[in-house]
Design goal:
about 100 residues, mainly alpha, 6 helices, globular, Tetratricopeptide repeat protein
Amino acid sequence: MAHLRMLKGDYNEALVFLRKVIEDSSINYNIIAEDILKSYKETGLPEFLVYYAVSMYYTNDEAGLTTGYEELLKQDILWQDMLHKLLPDIDVNKKEEI
């Protein structure tokens, strides 16, 4: 549902669904990652950027994770904390570890 909402440009509804499923590692993040990034670029909402970084983590895309994290560093610490809660095994305070 989140994917369909992003495709339709219904970003608030997409976030509602993403919040419910983002921690599920069985999701095919390859399908939704690009649309999450597009949603971030369209809206500027950092929550999409957090979810993009999570999707890059689950797809083992180190370059995408690094890019998402570096962009996240420009946002409020709240969003970095959110990423840390979703992915506690990465240290969001140490960029060189990502």
